[in-house]
Design brief:
Shape: globular
Number of helices: 7
Helix content: 40-55%
Strand content: 5-15%
CATH class: Alpha Beta
Strand order of the largest sheet: 3-4-5
Number of strands: 5
Distance between the termini: 6 Å
CATH superfamily: P-loop containing nucleotide triphosphate hydrolases
Radius of gyration: 16 Å
Number of domains: 1
Largest sheet: 3 strands, parallel
CATH architecture: 3-Layer(aba) Sandwich
């Protein structure tokens, strides 16, 4: 947590290796990421996913296609993809969004699609970079509730935010560790 412009998003880019981190700066399972080969970085990236503050949805794809996109990258069978999609669709109430064009979705609905895309391949770490920055309080709480539920299901969620109200809401339901950048 810290104010806008303090480098929170840059930190997330280090974590996903979009920007290479300096030596001995970021570790994964006791290994310095700066020593990873390109193949190691690709395997590491498969273990995490980021929920971007600006959604990063592909406008040429449907809601479902946006959500299952990561599974196609991993060359999964169509029946496996469909099974995973049906599970996440039911868990995150996506049935009403399915026929929608992603361009026409509200901010809350776009963020829900982003969350579904992030969790569909069962990552070890979910990085949520300002996932509620443009949402009203009711929808901020809805996103927080989804993140809380993911954490309770033994998912590590790294929430990057400047919103103290969001942190207070989450801390009433979970024990959190706060780091200021």
């Amino acid at each position: 947590m810290w104010k806008s412009g303090a480098g929170k998003t840059v930190f997330s880019k280090f974590l996903i290796w979009k920007i290479p981190a300096p030596k001995k700066c970021i570790f994964y399972k006791m290994s310095d990421l700066s020593t990873f080969s390109k193949a190691d970085i690709q395997m590491y990236r498969r273990k995490l996913w980021i929920i971007f503050q600006d959604y990063n949805l592909l406008h040429s794809l449907s809601v479902k296609e946006n959500i299952v996109y990561p599974l196609h990258i991993y060359w999964l069978w169509d029946d496996t993809i469909e099974m995973k999609y049906q599970k996440i669709r039911d868990e995150l109430w996506l049935d009403k969004l399915e026929p929608s064009d992603v361009v026409r979705l509200s901010g809350w609905e776009k963020q829900l699609v982003c969350i579904a895309r992030a969790v569909i391949h069962d990552p070890e770490l979910i990085i949520a970079d300002e996932p509620t920055w443009n949402l009203d309080w009711e929808n901020t709480q809805r996103v927080a509730d989804v993140l809380i539920d993911l954490n309770k299901r033994w998912k590590t969620v790294l929430l990057i935010t400047h919103d103290i109200h969001l942190l207070n809401y989450i801390s009433k339901q979970l024990e959190i560790t706060l780091f200021k950048i």
